[in-house]
Amino acid sequence: MNVRRRRISGIAVTAATAIGLGTLSACSSDSSAAGNTDKFDVVASFYPMEYLAEQIGGDHVNVTTLTEPGQEPHDLELSAKQTAQMGEADAVLYLKSLQPAVDEAIAQSDVKTKIDAATLTKLEDHGNVEHDHGGEEHADEHAEEEHSEGGEHSLDPHVWLDPVKYAEIAEGVAKSFEKADPDHADDYRKNAEALAKKLSGLDTAYKDGLKTTATKVFFTNHAAFGYLAERYGLTQEAINGLDPESEPSPARIKELQEEAKADGVTTVFYETLVSDKTAKTLAKDAGLKTDVLDPLEGITDKSKGDDYVAVMESNLKALQAALGAK
User: Fold this and answer.
1) CA–CA separation, 42 and 53 (whole Å)
2) By CB count within 10 A, which of 6, 24, 141, 281 is most buried?
C-alpha cells in the first residue's frame, strides 16, 4: 500500500467545528425540561456527529451540539450549564478521544443512551512519520522507534472523512436510536438507509473520480486525511504533524520541494479555519499552488458546501484538480 503512516496528535485536530447551535439551550428554554420535550433529545459533540443525528433522526429528534462555530473541537471546555443539560437529554452522540472534556462529562453523566462513534467502526493508527522520504521500510523502522520511545500511538480520530467508515458509524447510530426510541424505529431505519445510499454514492464518486490520476500524492497542512487517503489509494504528506500553523524547517521545505518534483505534486492544501501561512510559504518556495481541503470538523460560512456531502464533493473536486485526474 502506498499510504504512509501518520500519527495524529491532539494538537493536529484543528480549528473547526460545528454548525452553530452553541450551548444546549436549544434543547428547551426551560433546562429542567430538557429531557422531557416532545422529541427525542440528542446532544452531539461536534458537527460530524450532529449531521448523523439529524439525518437519521429526521423529524423525531431535537439535536443540539456542544461545539460552537469556529471553536476547535479538541480544546472544547464545557460550561456547568452545558454539562447539566447534557444529563437531561435522551441520548448523547460523541467520538471518544477527540474531545477530552466531552469524554469526562459523559463518563460522569446520567444520560441513558451514550453512543460512542469510535466503537461503531475500526479506528486505525496512521503513524506520524513526517520525514519518511526514504520509503516504506524507513517508515516502518521510524514507527517502531516511536512506539518503543513514547508508548502506543493514539488512534486517528478523523474517521468521518472516509464515507465507508462513516456509513458504518451511521448504521450503529441508527440501531442505538431504534433501541432508545422504539416508537420511531421504522423511521430511523428508513432514514439510515437513505443516508447509506448518499454515502455509498459519495464513495463511488471518489473511487471513480480518483481512479486515474497523474499523481497519488497530496500535501496538507496536517495529517487529517489518513482514512481518506487509505480508502482511495492516495498518499498524504503532512507539512506539520503537530501544529498546523507553525513554520516548517528549511530542511523540511527542501525535502518537500524534492518530493513535489519526484511525485508530480502540484498543490498544497490548507483548511478553511486555519491560517494558510504555512501552506503558502511552502507553495511559494516550491512553485506550487494552494487550495482548501476541508477536514469537516464543522460547517461555517467559509465552508464550500452547506453540509457533509456537499463539502465532501467539493473536496473531491479539489483533489481531482490537484492530482491531475483523467
Assistant:
1) 7
2) 6
Alpha-carbon distance of 17 to 21, in angstroms, equals: 11
**In terms of Cα–Cα distance, which of 21, 127, 27 is closest to 84?**
27
206 closest CA partner among 237, 167, 162, 169:
162
CA distances to 53, 63, 74, 112, 269 from 59, rounded to whole Å, are 11, 10, 30, 21, 37
How far is Cα 31 from Cα 76, in angstroms, rounded to an integer? 21
pLDDT tens-digit map of 103-116: 999 999 989 999 99
Residue 57 CB-half CA count within 13 A: 26
The letter for the amino acid at 120 is: L
Residue 14 identity (one-letter amino acid): T
Residues 18, 277 contacting (CB under 8 angstroms): no
| Global pTM value | 0.81
